[in-house]
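B., you asked whether I could sanity-check this one before it goes into the benchmark set. Here's the sequence:
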Amino acid sequence: MTITRGHITKLVIVILLIAIGVSLQVAGLLDVEKILAVARQYSNHWWLVVVLILLQGILFTFALAGSLFLWVAAPLYPPAMAAFILTAGGTLGGLGAYLFSEFLVDDWIKKIENSRTYKVLHKQDNFFTLFAMRVFPAFPHSLINYSSGILKVNLIHFILAAILGIAIKSYIYARVIHGATTAASLDALLDISIFGPLILLSVMSLLGVVVNYKLRDQRT
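And here's what the prediction gave me:
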């Protein structure tokens, strides 16, 4: 195989991303407690909101741990504001990953194409499928973002599903964490009363996809 400038560019980008991820981990910058401790010192400044959104956007773009900011924004801000921060950062990072997907090396593309997320979106890349994935608890956002970018799904559907799905899920989680008298644990978010409605909403969205698919088949 002939090595082109494009291959070299992709390889350099991947190496840089790995270096960034390792550096953040080694420096302890992905430690939630440390991030929260620093953020508390500046929680009264308006620009902290912008910083938290941008940091999420960067991490989600490069498939890093952007979701950890749930545990930073929720304790610091009321649920509605926390949901706004998480939705803006998640959507910004999702769009970044969508656009960045064309720079992925072949090995990464093959791994994504072998994922269930990619296979589902390959068959049904509509708003309701994307929304169902976004709102489902603990669903990997990186797979949604990169799969959508590789498949070139409708960008409007992608953005709207990200905004609505992340907003609903973030608000529910933020209420639990912000309202806790002690530090919220992962067990609190795994309670059926919390994730049950999210699963139900996700299932209902997927049922809508199935019904629409059946009706379209009958017309044809």
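One thing to flag: The chain has one domain: 5-219. Otherwise nothing jumped out at me.
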